[in-house]
Each structure stands twice: as structure tokens, then as C-alpha cells.
UniProtKB/TrEMBL annotation:
Gene: mutM
Name recorded for this polypeptide: Formamidopyrimidine-DNA glycosylase
Keyword Hydrolase: yes
Matching Gene3D superfamilies: 1.10.8.50, MutM-like, N-terminal
Source domain of life: Bacteria
Annotated organism of origin: Floccifex porci
Biological processes, Gene Ontology terms: base-excision repair
GO MF term set: 8-oxo-7,8-dihydroguanine DNA N-glycosylase activity; class I DNA-(apurinic or apyrimidinic site) endonuclease activity; damaged DNA binding; double-stranded DNA binding; zinc ion binding
Reactions this protein catalyses: 2'-deoxyribonucleotide-(2'-deoxyribose 5'-phosphate)-2'-deoxyribonucleotide-DNA = a 3'-end 2'-deoxyribonucleotide-(2,3-dehydro-2,3-deoxyribose 5'-phosphate)-DNA + a 5'-end 5'-phospho-2'-deoxyribonucleoside-DNA + H(+); Hydrolysis of DNA containing ring-opened 7-methylguanine residues, releasing 2,6-diamino-4-hydroxy-5-(N-methyl)formamidopyrimidine
Entry similarity comment: Belongs to the FPG family.
InterPro entries: DNA_glyclase_Znf_dom_DNA_BS, FPG_cat, FPG_Glyclase, FPG_N, H2TH_FPG, Ribosomal_uS13-like_H2TH, Znf_DNA_glyclase/AP_lyase, Znf_FPG/IleRS
Residue stretches making up the Formamidopyrimidine-DNA glycosylase catalytic domain: 2-111
Length: 273
DNA sequence: AAGTTCCCCTGTTAGC
DNA sequence: TGCTAACAGGGGAACT
């Protein structure tokens, strides 16, 4: 389940591997991955020139376009020397000018690919129109967060997962950010002070940046196999730790549901306001 | 308008 | 043992 750090790892690896390579051919085996079937033809002859990430969106800029890919739950890229025999979950294959193949693999078929005319400011791309600042963007500040949520009745967790407020946080990191901020994810957003927003923004940036650094170091040993996947190896304190003793206070971590999402909390460390 | 629920998918696991 | 049902989850559509 790639969140911003895993997406960044995929992007960085691809940047070193496929920059300036031209797309000779695109084969699509599951059309619904593409927002528009014409993408297949439009990309032929284009080259992967620049690589950007906003939240969980990958942005590959070519001569004419911004090619936007969202991996959703299980999307992965593999860079292979030949087309694999087992293509069950491979839905798109890009034939590249160096003879290799960039294969898009996605068991649940949730991923999406979109194509738009190239924009200077990627936030202007139609695919990202409703996406808020990336968590690591300097414009994502405590006051920005406070202004977005201080009248909202929604839970803190819902707000952290809302990509139109800030982009890049998924279910795992949302729980970890709440734990690090010592806030109960069920807290109503309007109850959060400016000081709470300061802590939340700081911890969000710290945790995502830390995970990216880790992913970036771990991926190197995998580049030889050219399997380009995001690695999630950050040390988790609460997420998936139901019943485990809290790393801080040793009380058991509980699992509950917030906004229909499995949510892990140390109710001793995390205060509900 | 804001907030919630449903749905898209399929592999894995829990339950009978 | 073998089957079905529930579950996981990002985000957009549909609904309240």
C-alpha cells in the first residue's frame, strides 16, 4: 500500500533507470487502468524527461505531456529485460528505447494512469486540481492546516487522510502521526489548537521524510533485480500492533474503526480532546 | 456545503 | 476439508 514515501522510492529508482528513454510501444491488457484509451497512442514517441511526485501521485513529464500514475493499493513497476511469461497481473507494458520493458503490475487493478498537456506548475494539472499541498512542501504549514480544519467536525484521522487538505498520508502513517503527536485520531478537528496543528505538521513531515530516507537506502540493494517497488520498512509504533504493549507506556494498543478505517491507538498516550 | 457511504478489485484469512 | 463471507484500502461518485 504505497504512501508518499514508497511512491518517492519508486520515482527515484525510475529516475535513475529510465530518464531520457523513449517509449517505443505501449501494450495495455486492462483498459480501465487508463483514464482515456488514447493515452496508449499519445505516449508512443515520448521520452521520460522529468520526474515529480505530489502526494501519492507519480508525475512523468515527457516532451508534450504530464503522465500521471497513481499506484493506489498494490500498483508496482518492474523494469525487465524481457516480457515475462506470467502476465496475469501485468496490465501495461511500455517498450523502451534501450530494449527494456517497463511493466505495470497491479493485482487489484485499482491503479490509474492519466495524461494531460504539460504544465509548469504540476499542481495545475487537472488530475491534481483537488489535491492539497504535499506534506513535505514548505507551503504545508501549521497555520495552513489550522485554517483548513478549525471549523470541521470531522475526526483528526479523516482530516489527515483527506488528500485535498494535504497529500501523501495514508492509513498507516495517519496512525503513526497521531501516535507521535500524542493525539487520539477520533478527536474532532475543531477541538485542535494551533499548537496541536504545529505538532501535527512537524510530526507528519518528520515521519514521512524519515520513511523516505529509509526507503531510499533500502531500495539500492534491489535495483540489481530491477524490481521497482516501494519498500515499507519503517518501524511502526501502533499500526497493526493490536494488543501489543505500547513502546512508550506498555499499555496495550487497541484497534478500532474511525471513518471505516482500521485504526490503532494507545489510549493512554494519545489524548482525546 | 459538509460529511458519510458505497464501489471498484482480488488475494488472503476467518468462520461455518 | 471445502466452501463462502469478510476484510483490506485510495479516491471518486453518489448519497444524506
Amino acid at each position: 500500500m504505497p504512501e508518499a514515501p514508497e511512491v518517492q522510492t519508486v520515482l527515484s529508482t525510475l529516475e535513475t533507470q529510465i530518464q531520457n528513454l523513449k517509449i517505443l510501444k505501449v501494450d495495455v491488457f486492462y483498459e480501465k487502468i487508463l483514464a482515456n484509451p488514447s493515452i496508449k497512442e499519445l505516449l508512443v514517441g515520448q521520452s521520460f524527461l522529468q520526474f515529480h511526485r505530489i502526494g501519492k501521485y507519480l508525475i512523468f513529464t515527457t516532451e508534450l505531456y504530464d503522465f500521471i500514475v497513481h499506484l493506489r493499493m498494490e500498483g508496482k513497476f518492474y523494469l525487465l529485460n524481457e516480457i515475462p511469461k506470467e502476465k496475469k497481473h501485468i496490465h501495461v507494458i511500455f517498450s523502451l528505447s534501450d530494449g527494456r520493458f517497463l511493466c505495470y503490475h497491479d493485482t487489484r487493478k485499482f491503479g490509474r494512469m492519466e495524461l494531460y498537456p504539460k504544465q509548469e506548475d504540476k499542481y495545475n494539472c487537472p488530475a491534481l486540481k483537488k489535491v492539497g499541498w504535499d506534506v513535505l512542501d514548505e507551503r504545508y504549514t501549521p497555520m495552513y492546516l489550522y485554517s483548513k480544519i478549525h471549523t470541521s467536525k470531522r475526526s483528526l484521522k479523516a482530516v489527515l487522510l483527506d488528500q485535498s487538505i494535504q497529500a501523501g498520508i495514508g492509513n498507516i502513517y495517519a496512525d503513526e502521526i497521531c501516535f507521535a503527536s500524542r493525539l487520539d485520531p477520533r478527536t474532532r478537528a475543531y477541538r485542535l489548537s494551533k499548537k496541536d496543528c504545529q505538532i501535527l505538521v512537524k510530526e507528519s513531515k518528520r515521519i514521512l521524510a524519515g520513511a523516505m530516507k529509509y526507503g531510499g537506502t533500502t531500495i539500492r540493494s534491489y535495483t540489481s533485480s530491477l524490481g521497482v517497488t516501494g519498500l515499507f520498512q519503517l518501524k511502526l509504533h501502533v499500526h497493526t500492533k493490536e494488543g501489543c504493549p505500547c513502546d512508550v507506556c506498555s499499555n496495550p494498543v487497541i484497534k478500532t474503526f474511525v471513518n471505516n478505517r482500521g485504526t490503532y491507538i494507545c489510549t493512554h498516550c494519545q489524548k482525546r480532546k
